[in-house]
TrEMBL record:
This is Transcription-repair-coupling factor. Signal peptide: none annotated. One of its GO terms (biological process) is regulation of DNA-templated transcription. PROSITE patterns: HELICASE_ATP_BIND_1, HELICASE_CTER. One of its GO terms (molecular function) is DNA helicase activity. HAMAP family: TRCF. It is an enzyme of class 3 (hydrolase). CDD domains: DEXHc_TRCF. It is found in: Cytoplasm. Keywords: ATP-binding, Cytoplasm, DNA damage, DNA repair, DNA-binding, Helicase, Hydrolase, Nucleotide-binding. GO terms for cellular component: cytoplasm.
């Protein structure tokens, strides 16, 4: 007999589920039993996301959402979080085509392994999968469990055993850990980047015990924070130990014939080599057939299916089999049958029936007990009619007649302010809410989220209106993270590691060829030397203490670099001639500089409280480089001298925020700001971004471009003259003579290299009056040279936003099969493609040909000869993913921000400049997906090919700066101040030329006459007769050793040397004596150089100190030393101070020289 108030468990669950996210009412029960299916009909737009969110909230377990394709999955992942706080994840797809010759990126494998490992224990939230991901078989869960490893502080663990375990789990042993699946072992330290982890770890052993576990930074290699535990997953989705290789071999022999060629897949795997695309032979590494994803689902899982899954699955299976048939003919790579890697649609749907599931549909359903029709319908036409007298008439009429709740949805705080401004004329003032249930009473509401398309819900009397319903477009934001900074000094000085055979410049001996490094022993003391070869087979051994004399040769191609004769006078004459020319160049530069200095600019004052509030509005963390650049810009503006700063940062690295903060400072000081851009499209994008960023501030922002009618332009001219406009963004129309400003204080120039000579002259005329901030991704060499020589200040933003992957770049001849594969690889993962063909007359034909080649694609065309409004419409449609291939000209070079476009194909890439190609490549790779750039060419000559290979080799992020220097090397460097200088640069090399020029400018500034001697940096030579080196058993990799030697040689003071010391200990463990001596000797050398000491030499019996003619030590103190300590000191010639002392102990020797320098520093002239 039940109590009267007794409620069954099922009824309790249903009651629990009845709390709707909208109005506390539920309209259908959730299925509970296997094969229990319920259909929900009449859904439109973002109602899908709302119903998914409601089901996720109500179901006491994991919900799996299955979509027809990746694009739908990504959209739901973005939209659902607006309506629920439950975790929403997506299972990463391999992002390759079936049987592809590419392997998935390591980051993708890492994310997949992490998701698969967590999946069986997930008990809330949702996981979203496209149907083709669900059809793919996966590794057995037992494999993940067997190869997962937990490491804790204090745990007993043999280093050798751990290395063996890592190798068995598929981790690669490297010299320096950079990406997932790598480890590096150095003495008591082991660096490791586990799969599924966001950061790499450094494990410090004490014997066979884990002493500490610390996170470290990939770029700086410095440790960040200590952790107690690491969870380790295998590096691949299949085992790669010896047993697995044997199993692979035996299963291969059952299915395929064996060939003997070394490049044959069977032979490669047999040797433990993992060729690209090996994942498609995954079944051969397991003794049982691969399981399906269904085997991972927790028991209490509910499935939601969206769209016509049957058609999508059938189509995928058909395409898969076609691809299998077309590719199985390659004898080097015979393929595993599709049913070993995927399940067919029949198996898929029979397995789906084993789970309770809900099908969400757009159509109205027949009346059945398992069917529920909801009351969603499309919104009436509400779009703003720009150009009409009453642009908001439709919305106004709707709001007057609709009696329920109207909820507006925008994507960000800034867009919220823009929408509120838009609604003010029709007297709509919505209330801000964070959850839909807060809109249960009739009224006007506003919420922030990613919902894309609105709807009407008649039953609940709810109208949900998205920004795109009103304006037809939405703004996509890219999240940045606080990431590592890159040393810009090292970018400039060491743009590429030295390779044997490369030309280098020795300050005293001329241009030779680098041949590597060697360790030599002299008098029982080991030292490391660079080997340089010169003309007539001569060799020169350079001790690493003289590394400051070496610089990389830049100035024309490597093949054309001269090679000098040791001891000849050709080099001395070349240096002398260059020095004379450089003096004239320096004088000319100084003249331009002094003209600027003679007309001081406005000295801005900073309001720290207001500025802090403005910074708080920025929704992301600034990167360290951004922070440094912002500080430099604001500091320049607060000086009495007019600012002229160049900010160089790769596409999407955050230059715009730097510009916005400068504009804010100008506005606070009641000054106007002009933002000059090369194209109308970029003007529109900046206009949207600036309005969004300044939305909460009383700032008037306008745009001047071809989009404006003559009447509107006149009104803008008038407002600028009256000071009613704070920020005016525009194309070259900003340079018109009849545009007069009330008080212009700041000019921001974006992509200066895109302007013509005449426009540049007009910009140059403004330079002496207003502060100028120039933004560029790839500085043209002349601009770069001027910045490097001190005429303009240079800031480099080299820190990429979080999870931004470098663009994989291929230089290939045109091939239709390659084209089809590249496009399909992108659109099947839900992405978009730029196809660049820079000939307007033939572009229609190219688009037609592409449509025949890839019938699966939706194609549109965009070029500069289209009507401006048509072009804007095409660009906005592409931005909103209404089609997936844009066939275009170089119109996309600036300002088109489409984070979902991750493949660019450039036909006849050989006809474009290097800077242009870098800009175009920067259009893709603006999200965390692997991006691809294909540079298609006919069979071309070597120089053009070399330019393309330069861009292909500079895949790493932040390459824009290095690229401009590459351009300099290939074209020669005659652009600084005319062609007559290019000869000097070619003879002595760009790096040395720039160093001499910088010193010449400084000499003239200080009133000194430049000469060859004072144009090159004089460093103290120091010889302590003790081993000073980085032993190869301490740092194995020769390039890393050379890099540290260069950094030690270039360190400016003890602070930098101490940082290097900390880094060496951090990365490689306890310092050997020889390395301690190296750092101490370097420190003594830096101090001696400041004192004007040419050379210090010391051995077991004493030594000498040789002074420069212009040394800084007080001669009176030296005389006193000679008189009072005759038994130690005596003079040898006019400039040598000898000392006699028992210094057989090396530490004592270093201490003695240190005390001598201490005394000198206390007795200066």
């Amino acid at each position: 007999m039940k109590d009267e108030g007794y409620i069954s468990r099922t009824e309790m669950i249903q009651l629990f589920m009845s709390q709707s996210i909208i109005d506390k009412q539920y309209r259908y029960l959730l299925p509970q039993q296997p094969n229990d299916k319920r259909q929900i009909g009449q859904l439109v737009g973002s109602a899908y996301a709302i119903e998914c969110a409601e089901i996720i909230e109500r179901h006491p377990g994991l919900v799996i959402l299955i979509t027809t394709d990746m694009q739908s999955a990504l959209r739901l992942r973005d939209e659902i979080p607006q309506f629920t706080k439950q975790p929403i994840a997506i299972l990463a797809d391999w992002e390759t085509l079936p049987y592809d010759s590419f392997s998935p990126h390591q980051d993708i494998i890492s994310a997949r392994l992490s998701s698969l490992y967590q999946l069986p224990i997930m008990n809330s939230g949702a996981l979203i999968l496209p149907i083709n991901t669900l059809m793919q078989r996966v590794c057995p869960y037992q494999f993940l469990q067997a190869h997962a490893l937990v490491m804790k502080t204090g745990q007993q663990l043999s280093r050798d055993k751990l290395r063996a375990q890592l190798e068995q789990a598929g981790y690669r042993s490297v010299d320096q850990v950079i990406e997932h699946g790598e480890f590096a072992s150095r003495g008591a330290l082991l660096d490791l980047y586990p799969m599924g982890s966001n950061e790499p770890y450094r494990i410090d052993f004490f014997d066979d015990e884990i002493d500490s576990l610390r996170l470290f930074d990939v770029d700086t290699q410095r440790t960040l924070a200590e952790v107690k535990q690491i969870n380790l997953l295998p590096a691949h989705e299949f085992p790669i130990d010896q047993n697995a290789i044997e199993l692979f071999r035996s299963q291969w022999r059952e299915h395929f014939e064996i060939r003997r060629e070394a490049e044959h897949l069977y032979q490669q795997v047999s040797k433990g080599i993992w060729p690209a695309g090996i994942e498609y032979w995954q079944p051969l590494f397991f003794s049982q057939p691969l399981p399906t994803l269904f085997s991972y689902f927790p028991n209490n899982t509910l499935l939601i299916t969206i769209g016509d899954l049957e058609s999508a699955a059938t189509e995928f299976w058909r395409n898969l089999n076609q691809r299998y048939e077309s590719r199985r003919v390659d004898p080097m790579r015979p393929l595993v049958a599709p049913d070993k890697l995927w399940i067919n649609s029949d198996t898929l749907f029979s397995q789906l029936k084993a789970w309770p599931r809900i099908q969400l549909k757009q159509d109205k359903l027949a009346t059945k007990s398992a069917n529920t029709n909801l009351s969603y319908q499309a919104l009436p036409e509400l779009a703003v009619k720009s150009g009409q007298k009453k642009p908001l008439d439709n919305l106004h009429r709707f709001s007057e007649t609709f009696t329920g709740s109207i909820v507006f949805s925008v994507e960000s705080e800034g867009r919220k302010e823009i929408l509120l401004d838009l609604l003010t004329p029709i007297k709509l003032h919505p209330t801000l809410i964070t959850q839909l249930c807060q809109a249960s009473q009739p009224g006007h509401y506003l919420m922030i989220g990613e919902a894309e398309q609105g709807f009407l819900d008649q039953e609940r009397q709810l109208a949900f209106i998205c920004e795109s319903d009103l304006l037809g477009k939405r703004v996509n934001r890219r999240q940045q993270d606080n990431r590592r900074t890159i040393n810009t000094d090292s970018l400039i000085r060491s743009l590429a590691e030295l390779r044997p055979g490369q030309p280098v410049v020795h300050l005293e001996q001329g241009v030779g060829r680098y041949q590597g490094m060697t360790t030599l022993e002299a008098g029982g003391i080991k030292a490391e030397y660079l080997i340089l070869s010169y003309a007539e087979q001569d060799k020169l051994y350079i001790p690493i203490s003289s590394l400051h004399l070496i610089s990389r040769y830049c100035g024309g191609s490597e093949q054309d670099a001269p090679i000098h004769k040791l001891g000849g006078d050709v080099w001395q004459r070349a240096r002398q001639k260059a020095a004379e020319k450089i003096r004239d160049v320096a004088a000319e530069l100084l003249d331009t500089y002094s003209q600027r200095a003679a007309k001081p600019g406005f000295q801005f004052q900073q309001d720290h409280q207001q500025y802090r509030l403005f910074c708080q509005d920025f929704p992301f963390d600034t990167t360290p480089d951004q922070e440094k650049t912002i500080n430099a810009v604001l500091n320049d503006m607060c000086q009495p001298l007019a600012m002229d700063r160049l900010v160089c940062g790769d596409v999407g690295f955050g230059k715009t925020e730097v510009a916005m903060r400068a504009a804010f400072l100008a506005i606070v000081n009641k000054k106007q700001t002009a933002v000059l851009v090369p194209t109308t499209l970029l003007a529109q994008q900046h206009f949207d971004n600036f309005r969004d960023r300044f939305a909460t501030w009383p700032v008037k922002i306008e745009m001047l471009s071809r989009f404006r009618r003559p009447k509107e332009q006149q009104a803008i001219f008038q407002q600028a003259y009256e000071g009613k406009i704070d920020i005016l963004i525009g194309t070259h129309k900003l340079l018109q003579p009849h545009l007069h400003w009330k008080d212009l204080g700041l000019l921001i120039v974006d992509e200066e290299h895109r302007f013509g000579v005449r426009h540049k002259e007009q910009i140059k005329a403004m330079r002496t009056d207003v502060d100028i901030l120039t933004l560029t991704a790839t500085p043209i060499p002349r601009t770069l040279n001027m910045a490097m020589s001190g005429m303009r200040d240079l800031s480099i933003i080299a820190t990429p936003p979080a999870r931004r992957l470098a663009v994989k770049t291929f230089v290939r001849e045109y091939d239709e099969l390659l084209l089809r594969e590249a496009i399909l690889r992108e659109i099947l993962r839900g992405g978009q493609v730029f196809y660049l063909y820079n000939d307007v007359e033939k572009i229609e034909g190219v688009a037609t040909k592409l449509a025949e080649l890839v019938p699966e694609a939706h194609i549109a065309i965009g070029h500069g000869q289209m009507r401006e409004r048509d072009l804007e419409r095409v660009m906005n449609d592409f931005h909103h993913q209404r089609f997936n291939i844009l066939v275009c000209t170089t119109i996309i070079e600036t300002g088109i921000d489409v984070p979902n476009a991750n493949t660019i194909i450039i036909e006849r890439a050989d006809r474009l400049g290097l800077a242009q190609l870098h800009q175009l490549r920067g259009r893709v790779g603006r999200s965390h997906h692997q991006a691809y750039a294909y540079l298609l060419t006919p069979n071309i000559k070597s120089d053009a090919k070399k330019r393309l290979e330069a861009i292909a080799s500079l895949e790493e992020l932040g390459a824009g700066f290095a690229l401009a220097t590459h351009d300099l090397e290939i074209r020669g460097a005659g652009e600084l101040l005319g062609e007559d200088q290019s000869g000097q640069m070619t003879t002595i090399g760009f790096s040395l030329y720039m160093e001499m020029l910088e010193n010449a400018v400084n000499a003239l500034k200080e009133g000194r006459e430049p000469s060859l001697e004072n144009l090159t940096r004089q460093q103290t030579e120091i010889e302590m007769r003790m081993p000073v080196l980085l032993p190869d058993d301490f740092i194995h990799d020769v390039n890393i050793r050379l890099s540290f030697y260069k950094r030690i040689a270039n360190a400016s003071d003890d602070t930098e040397l101490n940082e290097l010391k900390v880094e060496l200990i951090d990365r490689f463990g306890k310092l050997p004596d020889a390395t301690n001596y190296l750092l101490q000797t370097a420190s003594l050398g830096k101090r001696a150089q400041k004192l004007g000491i040419k050379r210090i030499e010391s051995n077991e019996q004493g030594g000498f100190i040789e002074f420069d003619i212009n040394h800084q030590v007080d001669p009176a103190y030296l005389i006193e030393l000679l008189q009072n300590q005759r038994h130690i000191y005596r003079l040898d010639g006019a400039s040598k101070l000898k000392f006699i002392q028992d210094l057989s102990n090396r530490r004592q020797r270093l201490k003695f020289v240190e005390e001598v320098l201490n005394n000198f520093e206390q007795h200066l002239l």
